[in-house]
Amino acid sequence: DLHGAAFNEFGNYFGYAVIEGASGPIAVVADIFRSDATAGNISLNVAGVDTTTAGRSLIGPGVLTGWASFNTGINIINLENVATDITMTYTVADSVSSGKGQQHVFTASIGPNASKNFNMAGEAAAGKATKNSYGGVEISSTNSNIVALLTFTEYNVNQVGFASTALNPNLATTKVSVPV
Question: Distance of alpha carbon 57 from its chain centroid, rounded?
């Protein structure tokens, strides 16, 4: 239960569902739509998180800190019943004129079966990351397997969003399928 004490960082606005295939593998995509008279509308698509892709080292491509009015939120979830320390390194892409190649390191402790959120535009506004940039993150955990969900939202004009999970480089394969 994401409303419970173990996942209290989610607040009162999130929930989750465990969906299991009775006779084989399944795939899940959640479509989320928020309509707010003050903040406007936003639509977000989120793929189900497969915990078999968990690991102690993850890669998150396409992280944005206000670039073209897009922001990335990163939610790192500790899947085990022991606390862990995480290190997340954000590297600004070489094609960004300001801050090209800069690295910003974030550390946090995450309790057992708990999570930690990073708002990358907020981190940039606080001077902890390059403003109006994009790049990627490497996330490592000392004691536990983790998964990370990256949400991308355009908060200025169209107010759209999408999400993806961070990748476990140890699960790379020679064949992949990508919907387009």
Answer: 14
- Walk across the sheet containing 115-119 and list its strands: 29-36, 40-47, 160-165, 146-154, 70-78, 115-119
Kindly give, in sequence order, each residue whose CB lies less than 8 Å from that of residue 18, ignoring residues fewer than 6 positions away.
none
Answer yes or no: are the C-beta atoms of 59 and 167 closer than 8 Å: yes
CB 3 within 8 A of CB 17: no
Helix locations, 113-171, DSSP H: 120-125
The structure tokens listed for 11 are 């607040």
pLDDT tens series, the chain, 180 aa: 344 444 444 444 445 555 667 776 666 556 555 555 555 555 556 666 777 889 999 999 889 888 888 888 898 989 899 999 999 999 998 777 678 889 999 999 999 988 898 888 889 889 999 888 889 999 999 999 999 988 887 766 666 677 788 888 898 888 877 776
Q: How far apart are CA 128 and CA 57, in angstroms?
A: 22
Q: Report DSSP letters for 101-123, one per residue.
A: T-EEEEEEEE-TT-EEEEEHHHH
Burial status of residue 66 (CB atoms within 10 A of its CB: 0-12, 13-18, 19 or more): buried
